[in-house]
Write a structure and sequence with these properties.
By secondary structure, the chain is an alpha/beta fold. The protein has one domain: Rossmann fold (3-Layer(aba) Sandwich), CATH 3.40.50.300. The chain contains five helices and six strands. A six-stranded mixed β-sheet has the order 2-3-4-1-5-6, sandwiched between helices. It is globular and about 40 Å long.
């Protein structure tokens, strides 16, 4: 598994598509063409039987699952175990002012912790800034 992190609009997806020679059809954006919600499809396959290779905007999927009262950490752990060649792209959300809202704080805390865990288990971790990737693991 590879983990790609960086700030909002820093070119993470473009970096992945260019540097790992993948096409846009390899990208999972939270809802597959079947229209099924992310929770129903993350651990499965789409109608064509193709498992997603790149999970883009992981932080958004994570937040949606958290707001729905689910445990997204367990789902992503299971997914990564079954799909060790996947690439996860996520914004960094822990920088800046600590939010007043309790759910917002919980989201940032839990996302940060799962990203730490994913990074520890990843074969490669890259931070993308201004479209340039810096390999940190």
């Amino acid at each position: 598994m590879k983990l790609i992190i960086g700030g909002y609009a820093q070119g993470k997806l473009k970096y992945v598509l260019q540097n790992y020679c993948l096409g846009a059809d390899s990208v999972w954006e939270g809802t597959l063409p079947t229209g099924k919600p992310a929770a129903e499809t993350l651990a499965g396959e789409d109608e064509a039987g193709v498992s997603p290779v790149v999970i883009n905007r992981f932080h958004i999927w994570f937040r949606e699952r958290l707001e729905a009262g689910e445990a997204p950490e367990a789902v992503i752990r299971e997914y990564v175990t079954g799909n060790p060649d996947c690439i996860i792209i996520s914004d960094e959300v822990g920088n800046g002012i600590v939010p007043v809202d309790a759910l917002e704080r919980e989201y940032r805390e839990r996302l940060g912790r799962i990203l730490v865990e994913l990074a520890q288990n990843a074969e490669e971790v890259v931070r993308v800034i201004c479209g340039l990737g810096q390999k940190i693991k």
